[in-house]
Amino acid sequence: MKRFILSVVCISFLFIALSASAQGIKLAVHAGANMGKLEGKSFKDEYQLGYHLGVAPEIMFSSKWGIQPEVLFSQTNTTTSTDFHDIYKVSVNELKDVKLNYLSIPLLLAYRPVSFFTLQAGPQFGILMSKQNTLLENGGEAFKNGDFSMVGGAQINILKLRVYGRYGIGLYNINDIDNRDNWKSQTVQLGVGIAL
User: Model-level pTM greater than 0.70?
Assistant: First the structure.
């Protein structure tokens, strides 16, 4: 996991170093809602509300192309299904709510066909900051410490205001118990930002 974090930090610094000759650099503050779920038999198949907030440098290499490496605190909420208790033989009578807090680092390629509209796509690395340890009996670890997703979306740029929507799909199984059930994240993000 330490190599993963170091790789993400190195890639981020590489993008920032390459941006020294960029046409324009702006820093934006972002905040918004996450509608997230974990895909897998162990969890309810429904999106639940969470939130995200963070910073997003906008680095444009030309009038149309740029990158947007972000650092976001992001929360995913979900609820276990009755299948969780059947698969893992946990003696719990009710469904459990689960909160996962990530430090998310999307590295987005930005294409701006016109000045007020940006298309974005790229990988997102997630570092699990906190989780519930009561999901399994005896406080066992249920979730891996990292996640990897692909993100795509669009952003409207009105002067300093940014309004965006994105969809992220997890490519990495975050189940740290075993391989009986694959758990992959899905998130719809809606948010606003202010360019400083």
Answer: yes
